[in-house]
Amino acid sequence: MSLRLAAVFGALSLVWLSSCGGTRFTCDPSTCPTGCCSATTGRCEPGTSTEACGSGGAACSSCGAGQTCVSNACVTPNTAGGASGGGEVGGSGGGAAAGGTAGGGSAGGAVIQGPVTWYKDVLPVTQTKCLSCHRTGGIGPFPLETYAQARPMAAAMKDAVVARRMPPWMPSATCGTPFVNDGSLSATQIATLAKWADDGAPEGNPADAPPPPGPVGQLPRVDTTLTMSEPYTPTAARTDDYRCFIVDPALSGARFVTGYDILPGVTAEVHHVIVYIVDRAAARTKDMGEAGPGWTCYGDSGVSNSPGPIGAWAPGTGAVVYPAGTGIQLQPSQALAMQIHYNTNGGTRTPDQTAIKLMYAPAGASVTNAYLLPLVGNGFTIPPNSMGYTHTRSFANPTRLLPIKVYGLMPHMHTLGKRITIAGVPSANTEDCLVDIPRWDFHWQSQYFRPQPYTVPANGSLKMTCTWDNPTTRTVRWGEGTDDEMCFAYIYATP
């Protein structure tokens, strides 16, 4: 890679050139083709809940007593043989209902015949779709690693998957898929979990169990764990406190970071974390300039000539493993600055000591240097009491020299966010949908990686569209406070 191109990729201030516009959202069949339009809010709803069921941009319906929303339509379950319906869970996929007896039942269009047991049928699903959160030490409220743990939760499991609350897989099934480690459930998997609960959660034969899984929701290997040198209590002077802390891997030679896992110390007050690569000496000077642990750092680390971040965390983010053969390089002269946004709207301030686990590429491995490039969609003004306000920005390939390979995307908004979409624009009048989060949830954010990279041509661009509902009496603009909003994403890319 040329020095000029490396400088473009490595610049801390890299924000892709943009043009912007804000428009009012109108819910109709053209803007809400897979969901329904709420008569109350004007929003495009997924159309898969009993309170708002429908499709094709029609008005949402409220299902009657005893009914459920299946495949975006209100139906009355057949308790003798199970309810039937089509679709997948996850993203904007359709619905699923479940029921039945030991003789068989259907859910989401899938018919399950014969007995369903934990070891033979349910454990393979929980291993691949649930244990990233529902494991000992995970963020789930209870583990699902063993039959003894899962059996008392069978009814709750059925309720959660049929209602599409779990697993919390946010991308639309019709945009950018498949993604690596897709967390959504198929119709057959939903029907399996539902029938198992309906049949009394039988255990089955342990000999039918699949092999134990490898690390789920964790790094395959942890080469080092870096922790803040001392706890920090967020300031009482403001509710949004941005603070940077040095965590130093103390490398003796250059290494590639190929995975990380950020572990917030106090999740109730950690809004997000971004870990920047910084010059060690410059960061230490910054640290010594303020009393107490760390230093104030809005926007970025505040350390000049940083090549950018190695990773980020927001609620819902788990361990991240970068695509094979890629990584972000660290030099021996560099340390890491962990920028933590603390939000204390809850009123309490608890000492925090956040940590990060790192996985390096083996010494001598062939690795392509990657970068986390920011898409900053600022410039919007969301009026008070406005629903479905939409803002779009376009980002030209910053090199203007070579194509860029986009492996992953991490969209980000705050709590008023409703929808965020990123598309590739390889040429005029051509768009390729890369990721669409049709029902934004601040508490479930993640990075989404493609099996193969998407190529943005030298003269191509990316387009990001954000939609918000602002029921407040405030005008809301771009800002770093929790009550402000963002239209932002990190793009994991290589030249």
Quick take:
With 495 residues, the protein is mostly beta strands.
Structure description:
The structure is a single chain. The protein is mainly beta and 495 residues long. Helix content is 11%, strand content 33%. The protein has helices at residues 3-10, 118-129, 147-150, 154-162, 187-198, 280-288; strands at residues 18-24, 36-37, 44-45, 68-70, 73-75, 104-107, 110-113, 224-227, 240-247, 255-263, 270-279, 295-296, 308-313, 320-321, 326-330, 334-343, 355-360, 368-369, 371-376, 381-382, 386-396, 404-412, 417-427, 430-437, 448-456, 461-470, 476-477, 488-494. The strands form 8 sheets. Strands 8, 10, 14, 15, 17 and 18 form a 6-stranded mixed β-sheet that branches. Strands 1-21-26-23-24 form a 5-stranded antiparallel β-sheet, with no helix packed on it. Strand 6 (104-107) and strand 7 (110-113) form a beta hairpin. Helix 2 (118-129) packs across helix 5. The longest helix has 12 residues, at 118-129. It is globular.
Quickly give the structural class: mainly beta
Beta fraction = 25-35%
Got a strand count?
28
Q: What is the terminal separation in angstroms?
A: 8 Å
Total helix count? 6
Please mark out the parts with pLDDT under 50 across 5 or more consecutive residues, or reply none. Answer: 1-8, 10-25, 77-108
